[in-house]
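EI: anyone free to look at a 253-residue chain?
SC: sure, send it
EI:
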Amino acid sequence: MQLDLKGKSALVTGSSRGIGRAIAEGLLREGCQVALNGRNARELGDAARALGGENLVQIVGDVTRPEEARRIVAEAVAAFGRLDVLVCNVGSGGSVPPGEESFDEWQRVFALNLWSATNMVEAARDALAASQGAIVCVSSICGMEVVPGAPVTYSAAKAALNAYVRGIARPLGKQGVRINAVAPGNILFEGSVWSRKLAEDADAVRAMLERDVALASLGTPAEVADLVAWLASPRAGFATGGVYVLDGGQIRS
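SC: here you go
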């Protein structure tokens, strides 16, 4: 499908690896100019070299800090002259087991999984209003219902992100800006929790998939990237305030 994204400019946070890198690659393929973002300059440079192309810039920075978020957006706008698409992909499911939460851990996990998005949306709001652009946040099925074993801090942060997307859609819509979220399930890529679990006990992973996932398989970053690209495109022009599940049929609610 032609998504009418050619010539648009996009900023993808957390795009040095995994889902974020796949999203950047997908947007490049659709003809976007893409700003990669991450905290590690070396990893970001490796991703940029792997993706290649002249329609690519790297912006090192920590989106959990409001002043950094504003600088990152300003650099992206300066590089491309405008900003049409913001993808808020920064996040991490790594945390303590359920019942072992501390104040500091709550703060750390919410910074990674919620403030990373709210900071960027606030920083990019005016630029996106000028272009009548779109925002896509990467959430998780852990924010949709209880997933056994998932950290409570992470699940609560992603539930809050989903509520934020639904709630902020109306004021953003008045500015002509759309916002949606994608809630992936179990996604396999190098360095992911599922690559580690497969290496440790592949039979247990297969048993879980057969028991809990309708399609009995793990997803790929490219599949997430395709849905993100569609939501970011004019083809999804009537979609805002939604949280789109992509989990192979795992959650029941």
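EI: The chain is about 50% helix and 15% strand.
SC: 👍
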